[in-house]
Amino acid sequence: MQAQEMMSGLRIPEMDDIGQFFHSLPTSTLHEHGGRRSMMGNSPKLLTHYHDDARTMYEVFQRGLHISGDGPCLGSRLPNQPYKWMSYREVTARAEHLGSGLLHQGCQPNPHQFIGVFAQNRPEWIISELACYTYSMVLVPLYDTLGLDAIRFIINTADISTVICDKVEKAQVLLDNMERKETPGLRRIILMDAFDSALMERGKDCSVHVQAIQEVEALGREHHREPIPPAPDDLSIVCFTSGTTGNPKGVMLTHGNVVADFSGFLKVTDGDIRLLPDDMKALRPTIFPVVPRLLNRMYDKIFSQANSPLKRWLLNFAAKRKGAEVSSGIIRSDSIWDKIFFSKIQASLGGSLRMIITGAAPTSPSVLGFLRAALGCQVYEAYGQTECTAGCTFTTPGDWTPGHVGAPLPCNLIKLVDVPEKNYFASKGEGEVCVKGPNVFKGYLKDPERTAETLDADGWLHTGDIGKWLPNGTLKIIDRKKHIFKLAQGEYISPEKIESIYIRSEPVAQLYVHGDSLQSCLVGIVVPDPDVMPEWAKKKGILGTYKDLCKNTELKKAILEDLVRLGKASGLHSFEQVKNIYIHNEMFSIENGLLTPTLKAKRPELKEFFKEKIHQLYSSISM
User: Per-residue pLDDT for 9 more than 50?
Assistant: First the structure.
């Protein structure tokens, strides 16, 4: 059966055997270079683009202009106001005017010209991005969540002389750096919002020209330049990722990288994506990208509202009946179970969902299975990282079995390599996940050492994740190569694997598992969920406010027992179980320095922050 036929078949509810078909269908196959590739598509080559006339981000936008017939492109609104729309031609004109204005003021139309954008999502952000693509310049996003030190580092590393800001406050931050002579190369700040003359004077005092984006566009209108489009191999964007240690790394992504990655997504979902335009007209969400934590909380909230054993039983029964349909390839929201149980859940998310995409961390199979049934839409799980543009595996439509992240996208190969120190071997179908293809980045900006650590001589990206091939060719992420350590008796420990199991404890919102080579066991820091934990404690006869409960020894004991229960159920060895925990009443966050902007734990910072508590935990164990 051809891929196109399989896709169209997914939309026919009468095909009750399609689930069994997908369970036995190999979704990836071995490639001559030693990796596995997607079964989607007929070409022996990896997918580099979806449309022949859309091989760069500039061409992608031009295709949108052409096929939309100059339809609405960018919409924005004030609270309680209707959306105001700019058409594709209006956006194109503004991008050309902005780009021409930048060139008139000395920017160069080539992939060595980096333009910083320091703003939240709004139409001018997209216009600035398109202006760069129209004249072969490179976009470098700046985010205040990265921290002020990181922003200074990025501006200096990327030799950014021009930054486009949204708000005066961000311009003030940049001028603070200039006054301290910490970003000597910055020459121009362009503001989207209105500002007063005092800001211009302050800029003059430190040799920075502060101007309005409208002024630059007016210059470009007067000195218009014809577009100078990029080539697929030209850089399009440098995304600085904040690692858990050290300075951020500038991931260099070409136009070809970005186009290949979303082309792989389009190929895998071929057909279904075309059903969306009618829904989009209503401006309700139809595609919903989420992180697993949000899905977990959604799941917990649904069951917390089913506040009696009978209601929970009925909810589980309905989910199992709907789940049987999902396993057969039937995705719908009009069954009797939807009308009785799930319609309110679906309405709370807008009532127009067609597709949910989750990634960034593993999702519990039970959560995924329940939500696929309850939400009545396709729920895809993806896996990837910035270094491969975004995704490198994706759930195959029709295969709604949980416990894996799908098969390789058609734009890349995936192979597993040995990690002998953790007893993972490719010959057994386990090892570090490595990715190769046109979506893999070109390296870290001005960082050859870390580039060499991540990208080998043959072009394979080493992700640091441990994967396992399942019989049908899908990939399961089972561990991390990094953040491993030995306990005093010599056992290797992967704390992130343990955390991914413990986080399913109902009252737990966040946790940090700690150990080192001087200790013979593990301890943990647990942050309970303020919305869930009090009710969970009440069921166990433990009463009090959230802060009081966090100090309650009975609650601590109950949570520790629940963690150990989950660990045993998931096959953790006794030395992988925490022996003591401290209950902390404040969430780890970007603001307090314990999470990265991508919400990953900063392990060194957590270790330092809880140093005294960790010492007390070990002391009480040894007593």
Answer: no
N- to C-terminal Cα distance for the chain? 66
Residue 191 sits in a domain whose CATH number is 3.40.50.12780
8 A C-beta contact, residue 555 and residue 532:
no
Instruction: Give the DSSP H/E element, type plus range, for residue 149.
Output: helix 148-157
User: Is 355 in the same domain as 287?
Assistant: yes
> At residue 9, what is the residue type?
G
For residue 531, give both structure tokens: 């919305």
CA 295/CA 34 separation, integer angstroms:
35
Given CA atoms 513, 519, 521, 527 in this order, what sign does their dihedral have? negative
* pLDDT for residue 281: 36
| Cα atoms found within 13 Å of the Cα of residue 358, Cβ hemisphere only | 22
Contact between residue 187 and residue 209 where contact means Cβ atoms under 8 Å apart = yes
How do 391-394 and 407-408 pair as beta strands?
Answer: antiparallel
Is residue 469 within 8 A of residue 406, CB to CB? The reply is: no
pTM: 0.75
Each residue's pLDDT tens digit, 170-203: 999 999 999 999 999 999 999 999 999 999 999 9
What does the alpha-carbon distance between residue 178 and residue 546 come to, in Å, rounded to a whole number?
A: 45
Question: Which of 480, 497, 514 marks a domain boundary?
Answer: 480
Secondary-structure percent of the chain, ordered helix, strand, coil, rounded to 5: 40, 20, 40
User: SS3 for 199?
Assistant: helix
